[in-house]
Amino acid sequence: MTVTVHPAAALAGSPVLPADKSVAHRAAIFAAIAEGESQIIGFSDAADPHSTLACLRALGVEIEERPDVLGADGTPSLFVQGRGLGGLRPAPGVLDCGNSGTTMRLLMGLLAGRPFDTTLTGDASLSGRPMERVAAPLRQMGGAVDLSDGGAPVGLRGRGLRGRGLRGITYRLPVASAQVKSAVLLAGLSARGTTTVVEPVPTRDHTERMLELDVLDVGGERHVSVEGGAAVRARRWVVPRDVSAAAFFLVAGSTAEAAVIQLSGVGLNPTRSGVLDVLRAMGATIKVSNERERGGEPIADLRVEAPGGLAGVEIGGAIVPNLIDEIPALAVAAAYAEGQTVIRDAAELRVKETDRIAATAAFLRAMGGAVTERPDGLVVDGGRPLHGATVDARGDHRIAMAAAVAALGATGPTTIRGAEAAAVSFPGFWEALEGVAVGSVEHGPPRPA
Ligand SMILES: O=C(O)C1=C[C@@H](OP(=O)(O)O)[C@@H](O)[C@H](O)C1
Ligand SMILES: C=C(OP(=O)(O)O)C(=O)O
């Protein structure tokens, strides 16, 4: 699918954001292994969390979507009949994780300690992403994990456990990854004894919040522990709106000539909200109001207004895992800011749905931006006017949406190929964008003038 985005000087509106993808995956998995019925309010309608649902259904978990049962903010519910960890059944075929790294890595952890074999596959993008980072700790725990060239298809051999099951370990994360942390902790539920993950650099903490795990600060490092055999409680989960989806509108509002955009019920977990800190450091005007809690996660309403100019910043160090998915959008803000922005310590971007360092540099350069790739990031010399171009999303939702935001402030139309990728995390994105920038979104290539 091709979408053409026309420039828009003034933005206004209240786009509805999708449910937080990270929380939605976890709520579905934890509900599946709880004993009894759980309700998930505000589950995401995005493709990635639906890949998780399809896998859980194939493992014998009954999940009912109930658009008629609404939560307080009008979002629909999902009812999950939890079977307990021991109640998961062998899938009749391979489990297709689609485009979703979180699905594959968390399910590797969940299923490594089950007494049956499982094969996990994904699309071409996911098949190229590194899985050894999860396989290595699972093997240390006694799991039998086969990879194909370091990635999917992933084979988990239950028979390889030889009746002894997994054993708890203490594992220090060599890469700052919440997916690896969560996979090891999920495997720890099937293991003998205690499993502890040590995080030198904090990553998103949804798993530990949602499972109410023990977290210690030991000399500045986080130690997260789970006991083997611990039961997961069936309960009501409430999923906040996704701050990673909000980021596109925060950048759009901060780079427009005139803007007032309101975003309600946005998850502001402090391990996820670095995008606000960086945009504010660049000079953005973002107001946070009505701060409250939703399902154990802090949420708030956001209002972004055009600040009348941004300045370049340095992004690196411990904040990077906190805003890793927002970097393509932040690079767009950098292109519209005066001065230089340096993004470092973000080599992980090279192993996402596509190489996001190369893809971001490519679309910004095609639009006239001055961008230099570094092995672990980007240097953006901002303040040059951007012009319309034809760009490719490279099958990556965040690249499609970041390019769309860049297009709003450019001269002339920008055509985005592969625009359907947005639905991986934000199915209503193009409608939401048209809602704040009326007349800017044209489906298909531009109409001849
Ligand atoms: O745990 C999660 O929900 C996620 C963790 C991050 O990946 P890594 O764990 O690979 O850093 C992030 O990029 C991804 O979108 C979601
Ligand atoms: C990297 C992402 O997701 P995943 O790793 O789950 O594919 C993302 O949503 O930006």
From TrEMBL:
Residues 8-433 form the Enolpyruvate transferase domain. Belongs to the EPSP synthase family. It is found in: Cytoplasm. 3-phosphoshikimate binds at K21, S22, R26, S177, Q179, D325, K352. NCBIfam families: aroA. Its main location: cytoplasm. The active site is at D325 (proton acceptor). Keywords: Amino-acid biosynthesis, Aromatic amino acid biosynthesis, Cytoplasm, Transferase. Monomer. Catalyzes the transfer of the enolpyruvyl moiety of phosphoenolpyruvate (PEP) to the 5-hydroxyl of shikimate-3-phosphate (S3P) to produce enolpyruvyl shikimate-3-phosphate and inorganic phosphate. It comes from the Bacteria. PROSITE patterns: EPSP_SYNTHASE_1, EPSP_SYNTHASE_2. Phosphoenolpyruvate binds at K21, G101, R129, Q179, R356, R398. It is an enzyme of class 2 (transferase). Pathway: Metabolic intermediate biosynthesis; chorismate biosynthesis; chorismate from D-erythrose 4-phosphate and phosphoenolpyruvate: step 6/7. This is 3-phosphoshikimate 1-carboxyvinyltransferase. Transmembrane segments: none annotated. Its EC number is 2.5.1.19. Gene3D superfamilies: Enolpyruvate transferase domain. PANTHER family: AROM/DEHYDROQUINATE SYNTHASE, PENTAFUNCTIONAL AROM POLYPEPTIDE. GO terms for molecular function: 3-phosphoshikimate 1-carboxyvinyltransferase activity. The keyword Cytoplasm applies.
